[in-house]
Amino acid sequence: TMKNPPQNPPPRPPAEFRRKHV
Amino acid sequence: GPIILDTYSVIADFTKTSKDEIELRAGDLVEIVEKNSNGWWFCQCDYKRGWVPASYLEPLDQPEEAEEAEPDYGGEFFVTISSYTAEQEDEISLQSGEVIEVIHRLLDGWWVVRKGEETGHFPSMYLQKTGDKE
Known about the structure:
Low-confidence stretches of chain A: none
Number of strands of chain B: 10
Oligomer: heterodimer
Number of helices of chain A: 0
Mean pLDDT of chain A: 80
Distance between the termini of chain A: 38 Å
Shape of chain B: elongated
Largest sheet of chain A: none
Mean pLDDT of chain B: 89
Strand order of the largest sheet of chain B: 4-3-2-1-5
Low-confidence stretches of chain B: none
Strand content of chain B: 35-45%
Structural class of chain A: little secondary structure
Radius of gyration of chain A: 13 Å
């Protein structure tokens, strides 16, 4: 059975893959 | 017919931080069973099953995701259900119970939100729809 996802926020993308949105 | 799962490639090594997550190695191919909007996706690869961060995956084929290309500055209002302190310069710190506007929903679970003059990435799992349009 599929358990609930982790309760902590997932990690941000690695810096070199992070897109600029702000 | 058979269920065809979307295949993604892993862009960087990922070390799990809880028992329901699985380790990823850059270049691995994984099949995704469930995509949660909080950015944790349920994956099966070889004999392993568990949660992995969508932020470490990219589609193997053409991106088929329904991700908005541009921010929508007439966004929808949400209330924060947990506080979060920014760790990166493009993130925003908010207390629990603040009303903010979501201007860009990203599949990695870090949505771009606006509070007054300030914008930044915030964990979508700490947001709940307010119900009114304000």
